[in-house]
Design a protein that fits this description.
Elements (H helix, E strand, L loop, with lengths): L4 E9 L6 E6 H10 L5 H14 L5 H14 L3 E2 L1
Antiparallel strand pairs: 1-2, 1-3
Helix pairs in contact: 1-2, 2-3
Amino acid sequence: MSLHWFNPPVYVRTDRPGHRYGVSHVEGAAEELMKWTKRGPKWNLAVQSCIDAFEDKVTPMDVRKAFEAAAKEEKMLLR
């Protein structure tokens, strides 16, 4: 299985203080989304976008946009 890459990465907080994670593909976005305890409306859209990308219904860049919006909503986004 090949990864569904996007660029630039979306940097999010991790559970380790002082560390950040640069998400640069759909699979990484899906994995990070599953770790979050807060799950708002944009989280739901990001998860659905990941599923849609696995089925080739949306592009990896569509997932990037949805993931970034969810990260911002959940205060996980780092600039």
